[in-house]
Design goal:
With 119 residues, this protein is mostly beta strands. A hairpin with a 2-residue loop joins β7 and β8. The chain starts with a strand and ends with a strand.
Length: 119
């Protein structure tokens, strides 16, 4: 089993910045990809950014050039710059393809952290 602990959400003014972090814990042998997904009220969850253990990053179109993902083993961070009100919602951390003893690859989600962009 893998636990994901997220931190860094909050309230910020338009144009401001926030940094989210997510740490995975448990009997982890490896995690293929870690990243962030975003869900605005009434909308489906959508990709923000992911990074593989090899360092390949993938970004959603709406955040390219504004957000930067980084990863250090089983911790993933998301630097969010130039935030706008449309970025308001819950940000979920995901560990994809996590290998633990007796489990050959599973996906895990964090509880989510609220980001509110408002003046």
């Amino acid at each position: 089993q893998v636990q994901l602990e997220e931190s860094g959400g909050g309230v910020v003014q338009p144009g401001g910045s926030l940094r989210l972090s997510c740490a995975a814990s448990g009997s982890i042998l490896s995690i293929y990809a870690m990243g962030w997904y975003f869900q605005a009220p009434g909308n489906e969850r959508e990709l923000v950014a992911t990074m593989t253990k090899g360092g390949n990053a993938n970004y959603g179109d709406s955040v390219k050039g504004r957000f930067t993902i980084s990863r250090d083993q089983n911790t993933v961070s998301l630097q969010m710059n130039s935030l706008n009100p449309e970025d308001t919602g819950v940000y979920y951390c995901k560990a994809a393809g996590a290998i633990t003893p007796g489990n050959d690859g599973a996906d895990y989600w964090g509880q989510g952290t609220q980001v509110t962009v408002s003046s």
